Amino acid sequence: GPSGSAPATRPPQSAYASLPWKTFKDDFSSTSTGWPQVSDANHMVGYSEGAMYGMALSKPGREAGAVIPHGFGSPLNESELHFTVRPVEGTGYFGVLCDYVDKSNQVVVAVTDGTYAIGRFFNGQYTSLLSSFWVQDAHIRAENDEFQVWLHCGDTIQLMVNGYSLPIVNNPNRIKGNVAVFIHSHKDLGPDPVFNYQVLIDDLELKAR
């Protein structure tokens, strides 16, 4: 279907089906929609030229992120998130934090070319929800230098990248929380690049209940 449409294989009937969906959309044409704007020696997040939201890291092995300013309150029972990611420079991975309480309690859904990961921090201990820490899949790749990401997060987790659906994963014994986007930088690229890893995000839509 068109980009942003839900995959053909839907998660099982939701325990929250009786609750109404709330929707937050942002095309980043306005810089007053509540996203964090922070810049220091290690990272930068904020509204970017061309009506997008940028996240960048200047050193390897670092992370930067932003809780989506949806205004629905937290915790969320379940969410469906769609957004476009355009990697600009450097190497790393990007993704979504759902059931986000803090860095010690969160579900991490991470994507990079040819690879993805889904796991959970519980009281600071990380456990993969997949068969291995990273799972390789050649279907996960940029199209026109972009990734279209669709993610369902609730009692189950389902990830779709550029229309390619990955297997549904159970998310047992949840601690419900919020939803955020994030990036993580890989190896040091030396002094030449301005950023070790930089991405732009656009056309974000969050449905939550």
General description of the model:
The protein has 209 residues and is mainly beta. 0% of the residues lie in helices and 51% in strands. It has no helices and 17 strands. The strands form two sheets. Strands 1, 2, 3, 4, 6, 12, 13, 14, 15 and 17 form a ten-stranded antiparallel beta sheet that branches. Strands 5, 7, 8, 9, 10, 11 and 16 form a seven-stranded antiparallel beta sheet that branches. A hairpin with a 2-residue loop joins strand 13 and strand 14. The protein is globular. It starts with 21 loop residues before the first strand and ends with a strand. The model has no long low-confidence stretch (mean pLDDT 92).
Itemize the secondary structure elements and their pairings.
Layout: E1 22-26, E2 38-39, E3 43-48, E4 52-57, E5 63-67, E6 79-90, E7 92-102, E8 105-112, E9 115-122, E10 125-128, E11 135-136, E12 147-153, E13 156-161, E14 164-165, E15 169-170, E16 178-185, E17 197-208
Labels describing this entry:
mainly beta; 7-stranded antiparallel β-sheet; 209 residues; 10-stranded antiparallel β-sheet; 0% helix
Uncertain spans: none
Overall body shape: globular
Beta-strand percentage range:
over 45%
Structural class: mainly beta
Number of helices: 0
The helix content is under 10%
Mean pLDDT: 92
Gyration radius, rounded: 16 Å
Order of helices and strands: EEEEEEEEEEEEEEEEE
How many strands, which pairing sense, and closed or not: the largest β-sheet?
10 strands, antiparallel
| Count of DSSP strands | 17
The end-to-end span amounts to: 24 Å
